[in-house]
Amino acid sequence: MDKVTASAPGKIILFGEHSVVYGKPAIAASIDTRTFIEAERLEEDRIKIEANDIKVPGLTLSFKEDQIFMEADYGKAAEILGYVKKAVDLVLKETDVDTGISLSISSDIPVGAGLGSSAAVANATIASVSELLGINLTNREIGELGHETELSVQGNSSGIDPMVQAIGGLIYYKDGNFKQIPFRKLPIVLGYTGSKGNTGKLVEEVKKRLEEDPEVMEPIVKSMGNLVDQSRESLEGKFDSEKLGRLMNINHGLLSALGVSTKELSDLVYATRTAGALGSKLTGAGGGGCMYAYCPGRCDEVSTAIEVAGGTPISTKIAKEGVRIEKRE
Ligand code: PMV
Predict the structure, then answer these.
(1) If you measure from the C-alpha of residue 13 to the centroid of ligand 1, how many angstroms do you get, rounded to a whole number?
(2) Mean pLDDT of 259-288
C-alpha cells in the first residue's frame, strides 16, 4: 500500500461539561463533520505535513486607503500541526519500519470552536499512518493514542474527545471510563458564536466560584451530574424526546449559573427555542464557542433563527461511525 486516506469525526458534549471536572458523568457525541488525512510513503527520511484546508474561523478583511488588511488567528492552524507530528511519532514507535511520510490534511471542522478539531486531526493521523504501515489498531486503541497525543501536546486532557471521536456514536463518560450508549439520530443544529473561550481559564473560574460559595455552587454541580444520568436513561430506555429537551434546557441554565455562558451563546439558545427546538444549550467550555439545538422536524427554522440571532449555523448529524479508512491505494 502506498497511500491511505482516513477520516475522523468532530464531537459535541451533549451533557455534563464542567461538572465532569468534579467527578460527575458526561455524555458526548461524535458529529459527522470530519477531518481527512491522506498519508503516503516518502522516499526521503522525513515527515512532511501539508495543510490544504484547515478552517480557521474569524478571517476578516478590512480595507483602508486601497490597502487590504487580513486578520485571522493562523497560530491556531499551526497549533494543529503539533498534534499531527506527535501522532506520527507515536505510531512510528509501534513499528520497526523506517520510512518518511507525507501527510495531507483537509478538515471541515472549524479550528478552535470546541468541536474537537485537534482530537480529530490526531485520530485521523494515527488511523492513516498505522494503516499505511500495516499496524492493526482497533478504534479504541486509536482513541487511546489520540489521548496520549493530547496529553503530550496540551498537558492535560480527560480523553473524552479522542475517545468518542475514535469510537463514534454516543458515549457516557465517568471517572476515566467510557461506555457506548446505543446510537440515536438526534436531529441537531449547531450554532457557532464566532469566538472561543479559553477552556483552561473557564475551568479555573468555575473552581474559584465553587470555592467562594460552596453551599450554593456545589448543589448545582451535583444536580448537573443527576441530569446526565437522567438523560442517559432517556436515551437508553424508553426514549422521551420532550424530557431530553427539558434536560438540555436545565443543563444550559445550570451552566449559566456557573458563569460560563455569554450573551452571544444565550441569544442563540433562546432564539432556537423560539424557533421550535425541543431543547438547546451551550456545548463545551463556554465563554463563546458553540451551542446546539435539538430540533426534530424544525431544523431548517432553527438554522435560520441562529443566523438571524448573529451566529453561524452548522448543519451536521450525530456520527454513527468514528474513525474510518476512506481509501487505500
Ligand atoms: O472546550 P471543550 O469542548 O474542550 O470542552 C471542555 C469541557 C470541560 O468540561 C469544560 C473541561 C474538561 O476537561 O472536561
Answers:
(1) 8
(2) 97
| Ramachandran category for residue 169: left, alpha or beta (phi over 0 → left; psi -120 to 50 → alpha) | left
Task: Compute the distance between CA of residue 224 and CA of residue 283 in angstroms, rounded to an integer.
Answer: 14
- Return d(Cα 59, Cα 312) in angstroms, integer: 14
Residue 102 pairs with which residues in a beta bridge? 40, 48
Compute the distance between CA of residue 198 and CA of residue 18 in angstroms, rounded to an integer.
Answer: 13
Range from 66-70, 282-286, 322-326 carrying the lowest mean pLDDT: 66-70
- The CA distance from 73 to 51, in Å, is 15
Q: Is the pLDDT of residue 61 over 80?
A: no
Cα distances from 149 to residues 178, 222, 267, in angstroms, run: 18, 31, 35
Find out whether the beta carbon of 21 lies less than 6 Å from any atom of ligand 1.
yes
Are 167 and 180 contacting, i.e. CB atoms less than 8 angstroms apart? yes
Give 67 or 156, the one with higher predicted confidence: 156
As a whole number, the mean pLDDT across the chain is: 91
Measured in Å, residue 16 CA sits from the centre of ligand 1 at 9
Residues in the chain: 329
- Output the CA 19–ligand 1 centroid distance in Å: 10
CA distances from 155 to 19, 88, 149, 311 (A): 20, 18, 9, 31
Instruction: Indicate the residue type of 154.
Output: Q
Are residues 180 and 302 in contact, defined by beta-carbon separation less than 8 angstroms? no
The residue that leads in pLDDT, 2 or 68, is 2
Ligand 1 pocket, residue 17 CB under 6 Å = yes
Instruction: Kindly state if the Cβ of 278 falls inside 6 Å of ligand 1.
Output: no
